[in-house]
Every structure is written in C-alpha cells, then in structure tokens.
Amino acid sequence: MSTPRTTIDIRPAKIDDAAEIARIYNYYIRLGGVTFDFEEYSVDQVASLLERRQDDAWFVASHGDALLGWASARQFSDRPGYCHSCETAIYMDEAALGSGVGSLLQQRIEQHCRDAGIHHAMAKIVADNDRSLAFHYRYGYELVGTQREIGRVDGKWVDVVILQRIF
After folding, report:
1. Which residues pair with 57 in a beta bridge?
2. Distance (Å, whole) CA 40 – CA 47
3. Residue 65: pLDDT over 90
4. Which of 35, 137, 28, 117 lies closest to 73 in space, CA to CA?
5. Whole-prediction pTM
6. HSE-up of 118 (CA within 13 Å, CB side)?
7. Could you please report the per-residue DSSP string of the chain?
8. What percent of the chain is predicted at pLDDT more than 70?
9. Residues 120-163: tens digit of each pLDDT
10. What is the distance between the alpha carbons of residues 133 and 140, in angstroms, rounded to a whole number?
11. Is 147 exposed, middle or buried (0-12, 13-18, 19+ CB in 10 A)?
C-alpha cells in the first residue's frame, strides 16, 4: 500500500470502529498461526472489549474511511501490583502491511504508555512470526523467554515468545 504517511490518522478507537477492528482481527483468526483465538469475533464482542476497562487503550489508523490497523495496550492482570504494566498488540489490514502504518501505531502506543505511567509493556508472539518479532525488536522490545508448546493450533504444539519493553 502506498498511502502517504501525512494522510494517516491515528486516533483513539470508538465503538463505531468495532466492525472494522473485528474484520482485521478475524482475518488473522482465519489465516491461523498468529493468534490463539479460533472463532471469529462479532462486532458486539469487540465493542465490549472497547468498553471494558478505562485503563485499556485502543487506537486505530485510518486513511479516509478505511481502517488500516489497530493497536491496544491492555492491562493483563487485575492485581494492583501490575498497574504499571500492560500487554500490547498491533494488527494490520493485510493491504497495509509494510506501509509504515504499524510504526505509527506503535509510536502512539508508546506515547500512551509514557503518558499513563506504564513502566513495562509486554508482547506475546507466536514464535515463528518472524515479521512481528523483527518489528518489536526495532522498537526496543527484548526477549524474556519462550514458552515451549504452550498452545495447540491446528493439531500442532505452538511456542510463544514473550518480549518486554521498559519505559
């Protein structure tokens, strides 16, 4: 996709974005090997996630009416000691891969983390997802470890790599 960066809008996600967020995420569920979800998300399920917690942050990248990707920084535990930590995720429309939009979303997530007093961000990535791993390493994420055979997808055991970024 050759969309000029100057025309990309990065903004907080709204409930009205739920259908497009679901469309993008459901593509990866159908693709397989990227997420541990097997059933596609409904618009209502995504809307519920967007409304769920005030401390969670969701952002979208758009060009005109087209949603190109989304990112989240979500609390991964309700325990008070983890209140300065989050788990991040970025999912791109297939047509926007390699366009630089993911970098804009990552920069917005990092700004949110700094503004919200987040000290530790974590990303959990399927171990053979080289593109996602390289992306996160470019942004200063470091390897914490590999959870061997932690999940089962399409009849195969799958490893997950845990990365962290300290702000």
Report:
1. 73
2. 14
3. no
4. 117
5. 0.90
6. 25
7. ----GGG-EEEE--GGGHHHHHHHHHHHHHH-SS-S--SPPPHHHHHHHHHH-TT-EEEEEEETTEEEEEEEEE----SGGGTTEEEEEEEE-GGGTTSSHHHHHHHHHHHHHHHTT--EEEEEEETT-HHHHHHHHHTT-EEEEEEEEEEEETTEEEEEEEEEEE-
8. 95
9. 999 999 999 999 999 999 999 999 999 999 999 888 999 999 99
10. 11
11. middle
Q: What is the pLDDT of residue 165?
A: 97
Nearest to 132 by CA among 110, 160, 113: 160
Distance CA 122, CA 81 (A): 15
For tokens 């709204």, name the residue: 14
Residue 129 corresponds to which tokens in the numbers above? 């997802």
When mean pLDDT is compared over 3-7, 45-49, 141-145, the highest value belongs to 141-145
* Whether the Cβ atoms of residue 123 and residue 110 lie closer than 8 Å to each other: no
